[in-house]
Amino acid sequence: MSKTEIVKKRIPAIRFRSGKLSKNTLEAYTQAAKGFYLYCQEQGIEPGTESARAWLNTFENAKTFNLRRIALKEHLLKLYEDEPADRQLELIRFFESIRAKQVKKAVTTDYLTFEQIETLVKTCKSKEMQLVIWSLFWSGARITELLNIKLNDCRVNGTVIIRIVGKGSKEREVYLPHHLFKKIRATFAHCKVYLFETKNNTQFNKNNISEYIRRAGKRLDLTISAHTLRHSKAMYLKDVQHLSPDEIAKALGHSSVVTTLDHYFHGTPSAEKQGIK
To answer: What is the DSSP letter of 105?
Structure first.
């Protein structure tokens, strides 16, 4: 009999106390429980609380540890549901004694400088995604707004003026540099309806673009999303172009200037800036 056959024979039916698990969660929990029994066999030890503690201690990553801890708890409580109440209570107290590990939160980058965006674009091998990133920045549009731009929404008049429909079905105008628009039209010459379309003439998936940008940022040790480029445009308008909060609010399509003030204008001006010496 092969080792695989032995493992299958010795592993009990993998079931869980909770009967309302999603397909993905059920698969993850099942693999975790099987991993526990395989560990016990490799170590030559009986499945139990002490072997459970030893197995969990082999995982340093907090997310991995926490998932396996919960999966094993749910499985063992189901496995021993017909045992005496004191045995079940002992099991519950055991898992309570093993605290979940604290997951370190990634430090999110609120916005990028113009130079950082240039570097980000250079790391992208896809010419199409380079143009999307620049368009997100220069327009200051939300990802959905950008992907919904139609060719007949664009008019060229020195710069490129684009009509977009934002939150609450409110219309506003955004702008793209003429040279950027020319590159977009040359690269996306196949587009029939929208400014950005796939080769099959369908709209880009916003989640795919956000994931691409996230990965591009990760290569630079930056935690970003497509929305980071909108924040970056706001800070560019504030710190480089020195626009007023009201002007920035109108450029970004904020429903109220209060939103702009809350997001981009923090801190009390220094005494010197207030004319006090």
So the answer is: P
Residues 89 and 118 in one domain: no
pLDDT in tens, the chain (277 residues): 344 443 444 677 888 987 778 888 889 999 999 999 999 988 888 888 899 999 999 998 888 999 999 999 999 988 888 888 888 888 889 988 988 888 765 445 688 999 999 999 999 999 999 999 999 999 999 999 999 999 999 999 878 999 988 777 788 899 999 999 999 999 999 999 999 999 999 999 999 999 999 999 999 989 999 999 999 999 899 889 998 888 888 888 877 666 666 666 655 445 455 444 4
What's the domain count of the chain?
A: 2
Residue with tokens 């519950």: 92
* Distinct helix (H) and strand (E) counts, the chain: 13, 3
> Which CATH number does the domain housing residue 237 bear?
1.10.443.10
Is residue 106 a part of any domain in this protein? no
